[in-house]
Design brief:
Elements (H helix, E strand, L loop, with lengths): L8 H12 L17 H7 L5 H31 L8 E4 L5 E6 L3 H15 L7 H7 L5 E6 L7 E7 L4 E9 L8 H16 L3 E6 L4 H6 L2 E3 L5 E7 L16 E5 L5 H12 L9 H4 L5 E7 L10 E10 L2 E9 L2 H14 L2 H6 L6 H4 L2 H7 L1 E7 L5 H7 L3 E12 L13 H4 E3 L7
Parallel strand pairs: 5-6, 12-13
Antiparallel strand pairs: 1-2, 2-3, 3-4, 4-5, 6-14, 7-14, 8-13, 8-14, 9-10, 10-11, 11-12, 12-15
Helix pairs in contact: 1-3, 3-6
């Protein structure tokens, strides 16, 4: 939706200047506020406290920025002939080759390019992940394809969740096809998917080298934290030095015992993403997935209060990937993390081999020496890093910058949201 009574960003800037000229502070609060139209703000501005007014104007400016970015999709439709979801975009590149952008026909079509990308770029994923990424979204992966070959050479996904929140996922162009303007057009096609859906919040995790590029495209970095990559040796190589047990009244259970709707509700409360197509029996049935939860046995199993902490683990090229990890407190976070770490054994790794993966074919003794545990820790929770460090994890020196279109995070990930004391690790930087 747009701003009633605002024709362009200059109008918002004028409102900002005229309404804040008598305030003594220039720093705007970061807390989320319901966006008000200019028509609503102007008549009441003299009755509002300055701090509250700054909050509303900041929200209006950010919403205008977001709206302007999404409106750019109209230019894409006009130039490349995209008129409805699922139709092809045919376009020239800067080199004269004709390309098309279209949704993937199947997971198998994407897999021919996606898995080699993951292995060559060292993105440390599982060959099982692609079906999960595509299956949890209302939209499909978009492919850029030279008409001369018909082979995909790049992809991106506008990951759209049940509650019209979204994530820019898996944006990769083959090196031989970069520098032709294709990435720019592919990214705009992704933004067009969000625009058609009416997606309210759009985020992404950017490496430092790409942050400026995303800023030019309307994304603003969260000031509340980074996604920090940690790793650790397998416990078979370096045993755990601590023993964590649930406190009185709490019980450690297999993640498969937790009803899917409770996982969906917990994930939503921590991230703002409603992902009923992610937390499913199909995900739990993946041969590489396992996990644990701490539950309050005094609470009904149907109530959110029953679930105290939980995490899942899945295979990746270098070993095991942990996430998410949500918990009410540090102790319950440590319990599920330690339990999951103990189950990450060389033998279990061999039970879920990945395609074209040397580690999967190695003897268990080699796996014990070479494999690593990996996790993406949310530093916006001031207690999160310590939980992992206490169990022997170390930073690897790679951070992701969490960014939001127009500077608008979900309320759950904004200042004061549950993410900042309950989210210890994200599910996956690729899809939020």
């Amino acid at each position: 939706m747009g701003l009633t009574g605002v024709s362009n960003s200059r109008s918002v800037e004028y409102l900002l200047r005229t309404t804040l000229m008598h305030t003594s502070r220039s720093i705007w609060p970061v807390q989320r506020s319901k966006m008000h139209s200019v028509a609503t703000l102007v008549p009441d501005r003299y009755q509002m406290r300055a701090s509250s007014l700054r909050l509303h104007v900041k929200s209006a400016v950010a919403e205008q920025h977001r709206w302007n970015t999404l409106q750019a999709s109209e230019a894409l439709q006009h130039t490349f002939g995209l008129s409805a979801s699922g139709q092809h975009i045919t376009m020239p590149s800067d080199a004269g080759e004709q390309y098309m952008i279209r949704p993937c026909a199947s997971v198998q079509e994407v897999e021919t390019i996606w898995w080699p990308f993951m292995q060559n770029l060292g993105w440390n994923r599982s060959s099982y992940d692609l079906a999960t990424y595509i299956g949890c979204s209302k939209s499909k992966m978009l492919l850029v394809i030279p008409k001369s070959t018909g082979r995909p050479e790049g992809h991106i996904q506008a990951t759209i969740y049940d509650n019209s929140t979204g994530w820019v996922a898996m944006f990769i162009m083959d090196a031989a096809h970069r520098g032709l303007g294709l990435g720019r057009q592919l990214f705009q096609a992704c933004m067009d998917e969000f625009a058609r859906d009416g997606t309210r919040y759009v985020g992404l995790d950017a490496v430092a080298e790409q942050k400026r590029t995303y800023e030019r495209r309307g994304f603003v970095e969260s000031s509340l934290g980074l996604v920090k990559c940690f790793s650790r040796e397998l416990p078979s190589m370096r045993p755990l030095e601590t023993h964590a047990e649930p406190s009185n009244g709490l019980k450690l259970v297999d993640i498969k015992e937790i009803p899917n709707n409770l996982l969906v509700q917990s994930d939503l409360a921590h991230t703002g993403f409603e992902r009923s197509q992610l937390w499913t029996d199909d995900y739990k049935a993946r041969p590489d997935v396992f996990g644990y939860a701490v539950v309050d046995s005094e609470q009904p199993q149907t109530k959110p209060a029953h679930l105290v902490s939980w995490t899942t683990v899945r295979r990746c090229s270098q070993g095991y990937r942990f996430g998410p990890l949500y918990a009410r407190d540090v102790d319950s976070a440590r319990v599920v993390l330690a339990a999951a770490m103990k189950k990450a054994t060389p033998g279990r790794l061999k039970e879920s081999p990945l395609r074209n993966d040397p580690l999967s074919e190695a003897p268990e003794s080699d796996i014990s020496e070479r494999a690593q545990l990996a996790v993406e820790v949310w530093s916006g929770n001031p207690t999160a890093e310590r939980v992992f460090e206490d169990l022997g994890w170390k930073k690897v020196g790679v951070n992701y910058h969490r960014m939001w279109l127009g500077g608008q995070p979900t309320p759950e990930q904004d200042e004061g949201g549950l993410a900042h004391h309950g989210m210890f690790a994200v599910f996956d930087a690729a899809i939020g």
